[in-house]
Amino acid sequence: MRKQVKIVLAFAVVATGCAQAADLAVLRYGNSIRHERRQIVGPVTRLYLNESSNGYIEIPTDQIERFEIDTAPPPAAAAPQVPSAQTSAFAGATQNIPAPVPAPTAFNQQTSLNPRIDSASIGKLVGSAGERHQIDPDFINSVIRAESGFNNRAVSKKGAQGLMQLMPQTASQLGVANSFDPNANVEGGTKYLRELLEKYNFDVPKALAAYNAGPKRVDQYRGVPPYYETQAYVARIIRDFNRRKLAENPALAVKSGRAGAALQARPTASQTGKTGATKSATQRTREHKTAMADAQPQPPEHAAR
After folding, report:
1. Which domain holds residue 215?
2. How far apart are CA 145 and CA 130, in angstroms?
3. pLDDT tens for residues 136-160?
4. Residue positions annotated with a catalytic role
5. How many other C-beta atoms lie within 10 A of the C-beta of residue 87?
C-alpha cells in the first residue's frame, strides 16, 4: 500500500511539472503570447493556447522574434468534482467527508469571448472607422500592423491590448469596455488617433509619437521624443503608409524621384477649418514624413509604453 501511494505521488509531481511547461512567443513589436505548444504551418506558426487542439491562434512566423520559457505560475486549475459524501476507511472506522466547494473558473475574456478575426473583417472595421473619423484606412492599417500585427488578442508586456494596443486607462477614457472586441478597439483607437492628429495640427510624426509614448512625452520634448522605440515606430508606420500609397498610385513618387520618400497623400481624408496663411497641414506632414522615413534613430532611451 505504501509503495502504491509513493507511485501516485510521483505521478502527480510529474503531471504538475508538465502543466507548467508553457512558453512565450515574443513578437517583433513587444507583445507576447503564452502557449502550451506550437507548430509551423506554412508561413505561419500555430500557437496552441491550451492542451486542446482547437484552442490556437496563428501568427506570421516572420513576426515572431523569439520564444521564451514562461516563468509565471500557471492559472489555478478548477478543483476536481467529487461525490457529495465520500466514505473512507481509517483505523477500522468510517467517516463522511463533505464535498469541497468548486473553485470559481477564471473567465478568459481574451480567448473565450473574442476569437481571432480574419483580415477581411478587420478591413471592414477599419474602413467604417476611417469614414467616421475621416482618416485614411491605409493609415489605420499601418498603425495596426505596427501595434499588433493584426492580432486582436495581442497583449503587450505593459498591458496594451487588442488590435490598436489600447492601454486600459486610455480605453476607459475612450469608452471602450472590452479592448479585445475588434470593433470597439478599432473604433476607440481610430478616435484617439484623430484626437492626436487634431491636437498636433495634423503633424503626423508627433501624433504617432504621442500614440506610442504618450502626449506628455511629446509635449515635454516638443516633438518626437529621443526614444529609439518611438522613433523606429514612427518611421516604420510612415514607411508602410508610403508603400501602400505607392502601390495604389506609383505616380506619387515621380516628383520626389525615388520610392519611399514622403508622398502627397495624406492620412486624413478631411481637415475642415485648418486653412489659413500658414503652411498647409499636407505640406507639414510631407516634410515630417521625409525626415522620419530617412532618419536612423539612436537608442539612448526607451519609450514609456
Report:
1. 117-294
2. 16
3. 999 999 999 999 999 999 999 889 9
4. 147
5. 9
